[in-house]
Amino acid sequence: MENNHRAKKMYDYHVWANQQVFQNLKQLPEGVYGDTIKSVFPSIQEVLVHLYATDITWLEIMKGSTIQETFKKVEQRRKEVDGVSINELESCYDELAKDYDNFLASQPDLERTIVTEHPKMGICEFVLADLIHHVVNHGTYHRGNVSAMLHQQGERGAPTDYVFYCLK
């Protein structure tokens, strides 16, 4: 794979932005991460577990796993992170980022088409780079949820705009 592929750069941004969120959350009062609030998700922890599980889902799809294998792995990994501390969840994110990096490094062509079966939409074709961008977009959306939930609790979100990543 070309080292400077744009999709890989966007994935690196996704990892950086998630790290910014974790660093911010670890500086806030303990309850902010896990307390139940009335919002899009019941807690910030649940947003982060959802994002983690979805990132696993797409990596498995990119690797060629069947939807059944993928769902089984995601369910197992979800159980492993149920109720874990913010530090433990951050470690899981770090390991998943390494899995993505290893996968992406092994790909000679991120512009290739992959075929997968979706439980509701049937057979789908995706360009691998487009799926990576989807992972990033999904993460951006949910980091926005976390920021809004923090504001609801009187706290500040972490600045994760792409421009900040480019300036680092």
From TrEMBL:
InterPro entries reported for this sequence: DinB, DinB/YfiT-like
Keywords: Metal-binding
Superkingdom in the source lineage: Bacteria
Gene Ontology MF: a single term: metal ion binding
Pfam families: DinB (PF05163)
Residues that hold a divalent metal cation according to the record: H50, H138, H142
Family designation: Belongs to the DinB family.
Record protein name field: Damage-inducible protein DinB
Natural source organism: Peribacillus simplex
Lineage: Bacteria, Bacillati, Bacillota, Bacilli, Bacillales
